[in-house]
Automatic annotation (TrEMBL), chain A:
CC annotations in GO: plasma membrane
A Pfam entry, by short name: BPD_transp_1
Subcellular location(s) of the protein: Cell membrane
Matching InterPro entries: ABC_transporter_permease (IPR051393), MetI-like (IPR000515), MetI-like_sf (IPR035906)
Aminoacyl-tRNA synthetase as UniProt keyword: no
Protein name: Sugar ABC transporter permease
Transmembrane segments: 23-50, 86-107, 119-139, 167-191, 227-248, 277-300
Keyword tags: Cell membrane, Membrane, Plasmid, Transmembrane, Transmembrane helix, Transport
Predominant localisation class: membrane
CDD domains on file: TM_PBP2
Gene Ontology biological process: transmembrane transport
Automatic annotation (TrEMBL), chain B:
Family per record: Belongs to the binding-protein-dependent transport system permease family.
Amino-acid biosynthesis among keywords: no
Listed Pfam families: BPD_transp_1
Compartments where located: Cell inner membrane; Cell membrane
Main location, first listed in the record: membrane
Single biological process term from Gene Ontology: transmembrane transport
Membrane topology reported for the UniProt record: Multi-pass membrane protein
Statement: the UniProt record of this protein carries the keyword Transmembrane: yes
Transmembrane segment boundaries: 20-42, 78-105, 117-144, 150-173, 194-215, 235-252, 259-279
Name the record gives this protein: sn-glycerol-3-phosphate transport system permease protein UgpE
Function: Part of the ABC transporter complex UgpBAEC involved in sn-glycerol-3-phosphate (G3P) import. Probably responsible for the translocation of the substrate across the membrane.
Subunit-level organization: The complex is composed of two ATP-binding proteins (UgpC), two transmembrane proteins (UgpA and UgpE) and a solute-binding protein (UgpB).
ABC transmembrane type-1 domain mapped to chain residues: 82-275
Amino acid sequence: MSSSLRRGRKTAVVHGEPEPKGWLGLAFILPSFLFIVLLFLLPLIMTVWMSFYNWPLLGRAKFIGLANYAELLGDAQLWHSLGFTLLYTVLVTVALFLVAFPLALLVDRPLRIAGVFRTVYFMPVVIGFGAASTLWMWLLNPDSGVFAQVLRATGLIDSAPRPLESFWPALAVIILMVVWKTSGFTMIILLTGLQSISTDVIEAAKIDGANVWSRFRRITLPLMRNSVVLALVLNVTSSMLAFDQFFIITQGGPSNSTISAVFSIYLASFSSYRLGYGSAISFALLIVLVAISAVQFVFLRQRPEEG
Amino acid sequence: MERLNYKPQPKPASEQLSYLTFILVAVVFALFFVMPIVWSFANSFKPAAEALANPAALFSKAFSLENYRRLEHVGAGWYVYAGNSVVIAAGTVLLTVLVSVPAGYGFSKFRFPGQGLLFVLIMATMMIPFQSILTPLFLILKAVRLQNNLFGLVLIYVTFQLPFSVFMMRNAFDAVPKALIEAARIDGASQATILRRIMLPIALPGVATVAMFAFLNSWNEFLAALIFLSDQNKFTLPIMLVNVSSGIYGIIDWGALQAGIAVTMVPCIVLFLLLQRYYVRGLTAGAVK
């Protein structure tokens, strides 16, 4: 690297050019390019390729055309997991906005203490899903968890509920954990939008006699549309890819009702060792994700820019 | 100064009331976010009998490292898993910085044909999640004998850390005005001097951001580690946690689990508290605009 740097200087000095020679820039980018080609582009192409094969972990792969896709269309469990993932995505996204919006409004003030609260709300974001999931497993554990303890102490209940044994309570546990772990993230994105609004606009509306609610609805919300859409896109995409919390907390149960889309890729490829079928599911999920993102971006483009 | 004038000056009653309401609401939320962490951490130092009797109590009568000692008997022992996580995180941080800093520099300060296309290609990694190419990645790592290998996992983490990191570093180098570089060149500064004295100080916060995200993401990553590591003694901390939480003979050692959670989450929280302004910078980099 250092020798190419020196050569760069020489050309600059000799020819008196303001910019070093272009090919040198290419050399700087080469390592990144290699990573992307070998560990992103190649496997991406392979995913599509493998999806047309019956590809066991051991033994010979066999071309089967669209058979994996035909199976996928008739796979009731897979449709269920896709439906479940969509349901989860909608519920989590709504829940995150319901918690994160008030949080962002709450800490959007020029006080040092507000900064401290921001940090506190954000803290769970940096903890991994593995640690967060096992932490909430313990909190909600009916035998030795804190919630069971508190419930018993109030005397209202003598045996704590077992939420993981039926679908809706299990889903509620997951959503509660995800809201705890990630609303700080949404809060920061929304806060960035809030802080980009000039106080003059708000002051002017105040003078015109707009009340708190109409100021929020007519001015704040439209002006921070970009950060709302950004938070939406990020939350939807990451929820569609959720895996850790289901693998760890519900283990897909009760009776396979909480198997997410990525979970079903994991099961096909690394539990049944049907790599071709796993690839077909991966590619289908990829298409769904790209479609969702495209719809969101079209939505973002259509509205005129305000402010 | 402006921020501080709330406390010392006497305010009208209505403003004091709204300040009190703010504090009250904010504290309730703070409890929701911080108590699970505090509870779990406090319980990791309790002897088993006491933790079972009263898990909600924060202060233990007897401080005990019993849970951490039992965690030594989980699989290969927690320090082996912590060691693996440290190796993987350090490797990912180092390699991500080594690869993305030159790339950011190349994109920012050079002009060459195909540059735009290359940039889009690297950024495309951000749109397509690694979960959807896991199956072939497994085969590729197997083919080059890096499956079930810590370095193999590092290579994957670096790849998916790249678009964010290259973008971050390009913006960092963009912040160095061309006039400054030219002036230094006219003054006779060598390219090395320009890099060290002008580029580096301006790019350093970008490097801190890139390094921090690389650390947190590789330290916490679960799915790829679950798939690509198969030997008991190669697991990382998140995989260890799952093994403890699924229990031995169906019985979960909750005390050891608390100790494991503490070992896994405390480094992340400490790092975040030390470098939080870089974290927020990273989250908002380019994304909102």
